[in-house]
Q: What sequence folds into this?
């Protein structure tokens, strides 16, 4: 089969199958790497801004792994948590998302400690994770504004 024939065959068998040109696949990878870099920088700045509250006991390479874990935690759990807490988010005019960010950072820390990556949130855990989540949210927001064209795929 040629490329066009196989494309027609797949579309006939599975009309929901989507063929992405190579530039679109590269665009998705670029978005993923940019989002990963934003998470890594945000985590690093949270550790720098909040010494004694949030510490990194392993090397700087672990920040890249923690950023990957943070992105996966956000991708997998945040939609479900947002759905379940939707009334609270509406009632607090969106401020409850800061509590969700706190939980996401704490969960990232727990998973990171399981893999010996060394992100430690000191006592009181809730308030330190809350401050860390706030720093990460602000840094992510600012960096997303700066890189909005790259994240949308425009050049």
A:
């Amino acid at each position: 089969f040629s490329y066009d024939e196989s494309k027609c065959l797949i579309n006939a068998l599975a009309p929901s199958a989507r063929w992405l040109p190579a530039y679109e696949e590269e665009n998705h990878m670029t978005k993923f790497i940019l989002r990963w870099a934003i998470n890594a920088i945000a985590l690093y700045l949270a550790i720098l801004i909040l010494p004694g509250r949030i510490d990194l006991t392993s090397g700087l390479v672990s920040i890249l792994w923690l950023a990957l874990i943070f992105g996966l935690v956000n991708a997998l759990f945040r939609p479900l948590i947002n759905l379940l807490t939707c009334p609270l988010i509406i009632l607090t005019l969106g401020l409850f998302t800061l509590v969700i960010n706190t939980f996401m950072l704490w969960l990232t820390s727990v998973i990171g400690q399981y893999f010996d990556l060394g992100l430690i949130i000191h006592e009181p855990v809730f308030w330190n994770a809350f401050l860390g989540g706030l720093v990460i949210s602000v840094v992510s927001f600012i960096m997303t504004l700066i890189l909005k064209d790259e994240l949308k795929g425009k050049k």
